[in-house]
Amino acid sequence: MKRLFLDANVLFTAAHNPEGKAALLFQLGQLELVQLLSSAYAIEEARRNLARKFPACLDRFEALVGGLGSVAERLPGAGLDPASPAGLPEKDWPIYRAAHACQADALITGDLRDFGALMNAPERCGGLLIQTVADWLQGLS
Questions:
Q1: Is 121:130 a contact under the CB 8 Å cutoff?
Q2: For residue 80, what pLDDT is reported?
Q3: With contact defined as beta carbons under 8 Å apart, do 86 and 123 qualify?
Q4: Under a CB-based contact definition with an 8 Å cutoff, are residues 38 and 5 in contact?
Q5: DSSP H stretches of helix in 1-141
Q6: Coil, strand or helix: which one is 37?
Q7: Distance between CA 1 and CA 4 in Å, rounded?
Q8: In the prediction, which pLDDT does 79 show?
Q9: What is the pLDDT of residue 70?
Q10: What pLDDT digit, counting tens, does each position of 47-83 carry?
Q11: How many CA atoms lie within 13 Å of 106's alpha carbon, on the beta-carbon side?
Q12: Which of 22, 43, 99, 134 has most Cβ atoms within 10 angstroms of its Cβ?
C-alpha cells in the first residue's frame, strides 16, 4: 500500500472542495488503497487558513484529518534530518522532513511555487517523489 504524505494545501483543498481530486485521495484512503499521512505542522497550517478563508469548511476538515496518520517532523532517534534540497524555502523544510521521517512513497502538494522544481525528481530529494494530486492520480492509470 502506498504511503502518501499530504501537504497543508492538499488538506485545505480536500476540505474546501469535497468533489475535487484532493478529496478523492481521502476516498482512496477510506477504501484502504493508500495510507494517508500528514504532520501536526501541516494540519495546523491548513486549519488556520481554512478558519480565516472558509470557516464553514472546518467541520469537514476535522472529519478528514481525524482519519489521517499524523507523523512527527522527525522521528526520535532517527539521527540527522535529511538535508533539504537546494532552493526549497526554509518554511517548507518541516513538510519535507516529515515526509522523509514517515518513509512516504510520495509527498503530495499543490505548492508549485516552492516545490515545483523538485516535482517528479526523486533523485534531487533523497529518493522522495514529490507530486501534485493530479500527477499522482495520473500515475494510477
A1: yes
A2: 47
A3: no
A4: yes
A5: 8-16, 21-30, 40-53, 58-66, 93-101, 112-115, 133-138
A6: strand
A7: 10
A8: 47
A9: 77
A10: 999 999 999 999 999 999 998 987 766 544 444 456 7
A11: 23
A12: 99
Helix/strand/coil for 5 = strand
Rg (CA), the chain: 14
**All 3 cell numbers of residue 32?**
484502504
Which residue's entry shows cell 469537514? Answer: 60
Q: How many angstroms separate the CA atoms of 16 and 60, rounded?
A: 8
Nearest to 104 by CA among 40, 39, 46: 39
Q: pTM for the complete prediction?
A: 0.92
* Beta bridge partners of residue 129, listed in sequence order: 106
Confidence of residue 140 (pLDDT cuts 50, 70, 90): confident
Angle at which helices 40-53 and 58-66 pack, to 10 degrees?
Answer: 160
